[in-house]
Amino acid sequence: MMESLTESEISQIARHQRDAGVQRLSRHFSWLELSDERRLFHQEFVFDVAMFAASRGFSWTDVIRAAEIAKGLFPRLGGKSKNRASPGGLDVPNLLSLLRDELSEYLPNLTPLHQQDFTQFLTHTLTARRRLFQAAVSGASNMSIAQLHLEVQVPPTPCPLAQALVGAAVRATEGQMLESLD
To answer: What pLDDT was estimated at residue 86?
Structure first.
C-alpha cells in the first residue's frame, strides 16, 4: 500500500470533483513508466476505479488497494491482443486471470458480490478506455465513423381529455339544438 495514501487522504480525494480528484490521487503514485499521452488515461482510470470502489461501500483500505490494482493493471495490458475477437484489443482471458490473481492478493476479504461488481466494472472500463486510448493515440486517422442523422416526427399533441369532453358535449348540445329546430 502506498505509504502516503492514507484512509483519511482517500476519503478527502473522494469528495473532490473529478479533475481535482484525479490530480490529487495521481500525486501518490509514480507515473514514470508511461508516456504523456497514456499518463492522463491511466490516472483517470485509477481515479475512476477508486471512486467505483468507494461508491460500492468498500472500506477505505480496500479503496486504496483497488487504486493500486488499477495502477498495476493498466500497463500490464499494454500489448495488443493476438485474438482479434477480443474487445478493445484486450486479451480477455488474460485480463480475467490477472484480475483473479490481483483480487486474491490485494482484496481477499471482498464479498462475492463486491468481487463480481469490481471485476465487471474493471473489465468493462478497461475495454472502453483501451478503445478510446487507441483512437486518441492513432489520431483516429484510420478509423471510419459512421454518423447517421435520424429525424423523428412526432404526431400533434392531443388536447387534454377534459377539453375533449367539453368539446364533445358542446357538439352534442349543438346537434340536439339543431334537431329541435328542424
So the answer is: 46
Query: 3-state class of 140 per DSSP?
Result: coil
N-term to C-term CA, the chain: 96
Q: Give Cβ neighbours of residue 43 (< 8 Å, ≥ 6 apart).
A: 22, 25, 26, 31
> From the CB of residue 13, how many other CB atoms can be counted at a distance below 10 Å?
25
Q: Could you tell me the residue ranges of all domains in the chain?
A: 7-137
141-152 pLDDT, tens digit each: 444 445 555 666
Cβ(51)–Cβ(21) below 8 Å:
yes
Cα separation, 166 vs 87, whole angstroms? 59
Distance CA 162, CA 102 (A): 64
What is the reported pLDDT for 132? 75
Residue 109 sits at φ, ψ, to 5 deg, of: -100, 10
Alpha carbon distance 63, 58 (integer Å): 6
